[in-house]
Amino acid sequence: MDQWTPKVVEIKLCEAMQMNIDLAIADGWLQWLSSRDRKLVVMRSQNIPWKIIARKQSMDTTTAWRHYKRSISKICRRLQAIDDDIAILL
Prior knowledge:
Layout: H1 6-19, H2 23-30, H3 35-45, H4 50-57, H5 61-89
């Protein structure tokens, strides 16, 4: 992948969760997150509304959204680092 952006990661996670494809890859990505953030990302990838996610996570909707965006960014950084390591080896 040339560029891991938050949007690309969100799309890939949603596809994996909704269609049960590449679930091993998605699970690997999710292991980089705390268990609380992992649950939040999984719920959002299943298109659960923010209000319900926030209630289940015992946080404000905006806080849940911030945790989600931070988690997606964390996954992006890890994927970009992996790509950079592979490029150095080539």
